[in-house]
Amino acid sequence: AQSVAQPEDQVNVAEGNPLTVKCTYSVSGNPYLFWYVQYPNRGLQFLLKYITGDNLVKGSYGFEAEFNKSQTSFHLKKPSALVSDSALYFCAVGTIRGTNAGKSTFGDGTTLTVKP
Amino acid sequence: EPEVTQTPSHQVTQMGQEVILRCVPISNHLYFYWYRQILGQKVEFLVSFYNNEISEKSEIFDDQFSVERPDGSNFTLKIRSTKLEDSAMYFCASSTYRDREGGYTFGSGTRLTVV
Asked: Which helix (H) or strand (E) covers residue B3, if one does?
């Protein structure tokens, strides 16, 4: 079974400061890890993913995430937060079997609030 | 930029009625998914679909649920006899082979309200 934990329901940060949204995972086998963002009354937007390769993954809107195998973590980061980054962020872990469609398991979400 | 389109955006139905939620995936995508989200909370996997077959389904996806790709463009989710607890936002997603484990393109969702 696979699972994802987002330990913080809410993260508050001042505009211009660095932000981190935490995620830890549990999977058997190699992890496929993802971050999505959801703005109010909108769908989920894919930000970035880790499949293999460099532990630091860069994504949309200046976000990046660091894969840490020993700590089973995949924290989302941004060097300088913007007010417009305020949204609900989901970490997810995916699995696949052969050529079939897979499934992703989502964390509970973290609400990021960036204050001016 | 290609989009996944879902209709209707909001549907209200009476308990026990059948509903069909419609989705038009991105045209060159071959992998399709349904997820749901209750009250802006956790996003839950329902079903994934490839090559006209269900690849995986969750415990939520019981006999009341079915999916179909009736033609070359639509992907539908049917709930045969809706219950109050089926009220949620339902998201359709699609992907290429490369992204079939995640990193999907999601639609804007259909808000289903069962009364």
From this structure: none
A62 phi/psi in degrees, rounded to 5: 85, 5
C-alpha A35/C-alpha A13 separation (Å) is 19
What distance in Å separates residue A107's CA from the closest CA in chain B?
A: 7
pLDDT of A6 reads 97
Contacts of A106 in chain B (CB under 8 A): 35, 42-45
Residue A103's closest CA among A25, A3, A9? A3
CA atoms within 13 A on the CB side of A16: 1
Residues of chain A with pLDDT > 70: what percent? 100
Taking CB atoms and an 8 Å cutoff, what residues of chain B touch A37? none
Q: What is the mean pLDDT of each run of 10 residues along chain B (115 residues)?
A: 92 97 94 91 92 93 94 92 96 91 91 97
How many angstroms away from the CA of A100 is the closest CA of chain B?
A: 6
Q: Which residues 6+ apart lie within 8 Å of A54 measured at CB?
A: none
Beta partners for residue A114, in sequence order: A13
| Residue A106 C-alpha from the chain's centroid | 10
The three-class DSSP label of residue B4 is coil
What the block records as the tokens of A112 is: 């990021």
H-helix or E-strand containing B34? strand B31-37
Rounded Cα distance between B36 and B39, Å, is 10
Looking from the CA of A45 toward its CB, the CA atoms found within 13 Å total: 16
Q: Select from B1, B31, B17 the least CA-distant residue to B92.
A: B31
